[in-house]
Amino acid sequence: MDKYSGYVIVVYVVTLALLFGYLAWLWLRLRALKDEGQDTP
To answer: Which parts of the chain span the membrane according to its record (predicted)?
Structure first.
């Protein structure tokens, strides 16, 4: 377990980073689209 624990932690952190990065990008994209919709009724 000690031999692979480092790899497991790295993979876990990278996965969470990609997930949160995607969610943040999606949120910003939806917010931008919503703002554009409000600017042009």
So the answer is: 6-28
